Amino acid sequence: MPIATVDPATGRTLKTFEPMDAAAVEERIAKAHRTFREYRETDFATRAALLRAAADLLDKEREEIARTMTTEMGKTLAAARAEAAKCAKAMRWYADRAEGLLADEHPGPDDVEDSGAHRAVVRYRPLGVVLAVMPWNFPLWQVVRFAAPALMAGNTGLLKHASNVPQTALYLGDLFRRAGFPDGCFQTLLVGSGAVEGVVRDPRVAAATLTGSEGAGRAVAAAAGDEIKPTVLELGGSDPFVVMPSAADELDYAVSTAVTARVQNNGQSCIAAKRFIVHEDVYDTFTARFVAAMERLTVGDPMAETTDIGPLSTEQGRADVEELVQDAVSRGAQALCGAQRPASLPEGWFYEPTVLAGVTEEMRIHREEAFGPVATLYRVRDLDAAVALANDTPFGLSSNVWTRDEDEQRRFARDLDAGGVFFNGMTASHPALPFGGVKRSGYGRELSAQGIRAFCNVTTVWFGR
Description:
GO terms for molecular function: aldehyde dehydrogenase [NAD(P)+] activity; succinate-semialdehyde dehydrogenase (NAD+) activity. This is Succinate-semialdehyde dehydrogenase / glutarate-semialdehyde dehydrogenase. Keywords: NADP, Oxidoreductase. Residues 3-461 form the Aldehyde dehydrogenase domain. InterPro entries: Ald_DH/histidinol_DH (IPR016161), Ald_DH_C (IPR016163), Ald_DH_CS_CYS (IPR016160), Ald_DH_N (IPR016162), Aldehyde_DH_dom (IPR015590), ALDH_GabD1-like (IPR044148), GABD/Sad-like (IPR047110). The protein is of the alpha/beta class. It folds into two domains: 4-235 and 441-464, Aldehyde Dehydrogenase, Chain A, domain 1, CATH 3.40.605.10; 239-431, Aldehyde Dehydrogenase, Chain A, domain 2 (3-Layer(aba) Sandwich), CATH 3.40.309.10. Helices cover 42% and strands 19% of the residues. The chain is built from 16 helices and 19 strands. The chain has helices at residues 22-39, 44-60, 62-73, 77-101, 109-114, 141-153, 166-178, 196-201, 214-226, 251-263, 280-295, 315-330, 364-367, 383-390, 406-415, 448-453; strands spanning 4-7, 12-16, 117-126, 129-133, 156-160, 186-188, 205-211, 231-234, 239-243, 273-279, 334-337, 354-357, 374-380, 395-396, 400-402, 422-423, 438-439, 442-443, 456-464. α6 links the parallel β4 (129-133) and β5. α10 packs across α11. It is globular, with a radius of gyration of 23 Å. The model has no long low-confidence stretch (mean pLDDT 98).
């Protein structure tokens, strides 16, 4: 894929970039490595002041960078503004808390004595240069949720961003520089995917983190594993949205949340609810309201304040969604709405919000992630069937469950194969909560204490008597 800004609302190429050559990549790796040796010695107060300065700049430039994101990948302008605000909030969250999250830990005196020590301390020390391979769908947030904790821990970062958001990638590198971070603390590598393995294998790069496709995750994990370097992977998701009869009194709220959960970011979110598993007692009512709400959504210009769903990010992305829908329909699924390109929008990569019912195991969409505004509906007879169907996926990122029954809540929390279980609400990422998945959704955790410790050397310091 060329490194270029292509407006998904029109399909027109607006700006192209030459990828960095090997010498330019080498220069940036060397600089990141040199800078780490000095930056690691800075105190938390210094790092926090720098990160707060970056947050202030981001707040000041919110409208500008929001328009850049919308132009590059098609999210609505309102969603882009909210993403920028969320990033600034996360920066301040880590600036305020990093020192406490990485404070020395002191084992109990009995354990210290039993170990033969006079004193023992557990310390969190930065690893070094961390490579971040990031996707286009949340082009600011995905990067900041790595960069904020990594920089506060004392690491330096190299960003290989998706090739269709080059201007956002360059903005991020420039943002941290203008905030006052030392030269080399955070740099953008404007390179194609073919250059990633070489960077991962470079001995000066200590670790890698990737958010993206399963294939990309496998490639980075394989190279890093061969070099015995730690990685954090956040890959695909096919999150269930389960509705049980005990939620019948708040079905309208569940439906409105379900719509947002499915079409957020134009349906292009790993943690978007994709499979709607509804108990037979409330299935017909939920389905009628859900389909009606999906049909009311406005598809159109992502810059317009009244637009609910903009275009998909790439022409291939829309083709992939169309293939999944067509495969399902050809095998007997019913399209309750959508399932086509909007006739009123001949330019750009738009796709109508779609609801499919009657999905069965032989359909590709039952197993594969639909990265667009397409929901699949399932009817189940009881809790056991809901749990079994929710887990019948190779992914395990997060899940949404609507029930007011405490016994059911305990059962779902215990038995769902997912990195998160959200009751009576929509899955969302927050700096205070660990984020990540199981199975083919990846491993490791971002955000919270786990996220900042992911790229630290947990060091035992033992003092003999």
